[in-house]
């Protein structure tokens, strides 16, 4: 309460102009939220996200900004916060609201004339469409963002190639999947981390996350050979260190679901159940939209495959069916 009151005081002191302390306060808060978002349940950051976004909007609308550099900084903050809020709506399984907020983030990125953030917001549009089962839109937005990021040396371009590959899988375009993943591997060797990568969190695309995306694309193509199983295990292992700066509970759960699918395709039902165990044990606060969809894929594979009649398969399917299916990530109300 004391810190919140101090923030309100500082923002009030600068009512006639935006001062360095105000911008510094917002910069600190944005960096904290970026770092925490992938690591904690949405409920832990949602109120602060909305409050900080409101503060940025109020400053942008109030005509108190005197310097072009300050206006650009505020628009960058608006784009970053809009990105996180949009991701929150997507985690809550409300894609329309998520897409609307992404467009707000995109507008701020354009006003800031920041190509990296513009590309990132196209990537988020692709991500939202992908989880909403709109693969044509997902591929369109990923391709648009990849074009914008083509000459950037940071990792945003690699993320967009990964998004292209995942969308192409659902469209049944195996050639594009392999081409996008190949280009991402080649570009990884020439990456120079930029200011977005330095933010971390959802604004950088680590090697382990690239492996996770690549494995998922192959899994969704129906592959389950020994080499892919080893890569899936490597992806899970990569996200198992909760102290790593790029750890994210959603990426860990997604890679565990992919490992379960690989093992199912290889006929190893017990191995699939072991991979799913940590996902099934997640508290309801962590069961966001992406995790639920990934778990449902495992359930569908259990139903369609020959393992569906095994006792272990029936038990696993029943546990997955107990997952919540509406407005995850935040409790109702």
How is this structure best described in words?
The protein is an all-alpha fold and 333 residues long. The protein has three domains: 1-113, no CATH class; 135-201, no CATH class; 206-333, Serine Threonine Protein Phosphatase 5, Tetratricopeptide repeat (Alpha Horseshoe). It is built from 16 helices and no strands. The protein has helices spanning 2-13, 20-36, 46-61, 68-91, 95-111, 115-131, 135-148, 156-170, 174-188, 195-199, 207-220, 226-238, 249-265, 269-280, 289-304, 311-321. The radius of gyration is 21 Å and the shape is globular. The model has no long low-confidence stretch (mean pLDDT 90).
Strand-helix topology:
Layout: H1 2-13, H2 20-36, H3 46-61, H4 68-91, H5 95-111, H6 115-131, H7 135-148, H8 156-170, H9 174-188, H10 195-199, H11 207-220, H12 226-238, H13 249-265, H14 269-280, H15 289-304, H16 311-321
The percent of residues in helical segments reads over 70%
Named at the architecture level, the CATH assignment of the largest domain is: Alpha Horseshoe
Query: What gross morphology would you assign?
Result: globular
Q: Beta fraction of the residues?
A: under 5%
pLDDT averaged residue by residue: 90
Any idea of the CATH class of the largest domain?
Answer: Mainly Alpha
Q: Total strand count, please?
A: 0
- Domains (count): 3
Provide the low-confidence segments as ranges. none
* Number of helical stretches of at least 4 residues: 16
Task: Classify the fold: give the CATH topology of the largest domain.
Answer: Serine Threonine Protein Phosphatase 5, Tetratricopeptide repeat
Distance between the termini: 23 Å
Structural class: mainly alpha
What string, H for helix and E for strand, traces the elements in order?
A: HHHHHHHHHHHHHHHH
Computed over alpha carbons, the radius of gyration is 21 Å
Largest sheet: none
